[in-house]
Design goal:
about 120 residues, Alpha-Beta Plaits, two-stranded antiparallel ribbon
Length: about 120
């Protein structure tokens, strides 16, 4: 996932690769699964259910200086490879990249994992 509006980023710092070049490299390595840009926060719709009532609102719930601008799903061997791949992404020079592993919902047999129904604390 990449975030824009990093206040310490220098927009004059040269990029190692263009977005097209980075996409071509991760595709050639076989680690790219999916990725795309996201519309800005003001185009978002927030959905919640509270007390059995559906609450839908425009835009983000919180105001923030940074926002998620897009995502890439990579299938890397380990964190070291993910860091290597992410460091070449153009947004690593202009914004901030956040790497997160997936928390699987289903096990290999297709059953819900034991922690799938637990809430994050």
């Amino acid at each position: 996932m990449f975030v824009v509006s990093d206040p310490v980023a220098d927009p004059r710092e040269p990029l190692d690769l263009s977005m097209r070049e980075w996409e071509a490299e991760v595709t050639a390595r076989g680690v790219s699964v999916a990725g795309d840009r996201l519309r800005p926060p003001e185009d978002a719709t927030t959905v919640r259910v509270r007390g059995g009532r559906l609450v839908v609102s425009d835009g983000p719930f919180l105001e923030a200086k940074e926002w998620v601008a897009g995502f890439d799903i990579l299938e890397c061997r380990d964190l070291d490879e993910a860091i290597e791949v992410a460091a070449k992404h153009p947004m690593s020079r202009r914004g901030t990249l956040e790497l997160r592993p997936f928390w699987t919902l289903y096990d290999e047999s297709g059953r819900l994992t034991d922690d799938a129904d637990e809430e994050d604390g």
